[in-house]
TrEMBL record:
InterPro entries: Cof, HAD-like_sf, HAD-SF_hydro_IIB, HAD_sf. It comes from Brevibacillus reuszeri. GO terms for cellular component: cytosol. GO terms for molecular function: magnesium ion binding; phosphatase activity. PANTHER family: HAD SUPERFAMILY HYDROLASE-LIKE, TYPE 3, PHOSPHOSERINE PHOSPHATASE. This is Haloacid dehalogenase. PROSITE patterns: COF_1 (PS01228).
Length: 263
């Protein structure tokens, strides 16, 4: 079935292990655009982290940031921002430090990344910059788009304590815990965006690889798991394609849309 809308995760899906969009995937995106099929990029990344040289994702479609915590709808002319209230941020922060006084906690406030510890986060977070440093008290005073915990081994305790108040997911092989508003999810953001254009979730083909794609897979008409995806996603998927390093997105789109690498 030819999809009416395509939703693409970035890391582990459209991007290869070098965090690049391959030539073949780029050609597939160009063909999708030429077909007039709307594209939504749904990522855990913040706005500052979706620049790929001369490749501009916004020229292909809409970008959903922070797993649905922040996005803009051009149809309704609204920016949607789902944040965690500062009072709850403070409670989560205090709890994490009570469990592990050395916890690596940082927060995202729209497009600002902030922490209280002077550490080199670049390797653990796979980024080229470090967060802004501030005091613990100031950090707890923000309404946050996302709370991040790196290399923290108490995921289940956190879910038991706060799972009814925020969305908590573990990604990157358990090395990263992401905490967001209950309203923030890829599936909620995609639903809002496509319904504003007159589409239904059954019209959507989505691609993904990790736990933050699971709700989207359950909501979309067609779900494509990457060959490198977690097992839970593969079990939910309509189909499994090749890995992100073997152009899995392009291979599937070429077949479904009837396009070739040379066309």
């Amino acid at each position: 079935m030819k999809p009416k809308v395509i939703v693409l995760d970035l890391d582990g899906t459209l991007l290869n292990s070098k965090k690049q969009i391959s030539k073949r995937n780029m050609l597939a995106l160009q063909k999708v655009k030429a077909e007039g099929i709307p594209v939504i990029f749904a990522t855990a990344r913040p706005p500052r982290a979706v620049n790929y040289g001369d490749i501009h994702l916004f020229s292909f479609g809409t970008v959903v940031f922070y797993n649905g915590g922040l996005f803009r709808c051009d149809v309704t002319n609204r920016e949607i921002h789902h944040s965690i209230a500062k009072e709850l941020v403070a409670s989560i922060f205090d709890y994490c430090l009570s469990v592990d006084p050395e916890a690596n906690i940082s927060v995202e406030v729209k497009d600002k990344w902030i922490t209280y510890k002077s550490l080199d986060y670049r390797e653990m977070m796979k980024t080229t910059t470090n967060p802004i440093i501030t005091s613990k008290e100031k950090l707890k005073g923000y309404d946050c788009t996302k709370i991040l915990l790196t290399d923290w081994n108490h995921f289940e305790h956190l879910v038991t304590k706060f799972g009814d108040q925020v969305t908590i997911i573990s990604t990157d092989d358990g090395k990263l815990i992401q905490i967001m508003s209950l309203k923030a999810s890829k599936e909620n953001a995609v639903t809002y965006l496509i319904e504003s254009q007159g589409y239904k979730m059954s019209d959507v083909m989505c691609f993904g690889d990790d736990f933050n794609d699971l709700g989207l897979f359950q909501a979309c008409g067609i779900s494509i798991a990457m060959g490198n995806a977690i097992q839970e996603l593969k079990e939910t998927a309509t189909e499994i394609t090749e890995t992100n390093d073997n152009d899995g997105v392009a291979i599937l789109l070429e077949r479904v849309l009837g396009i070739s690498q040379k066309s």
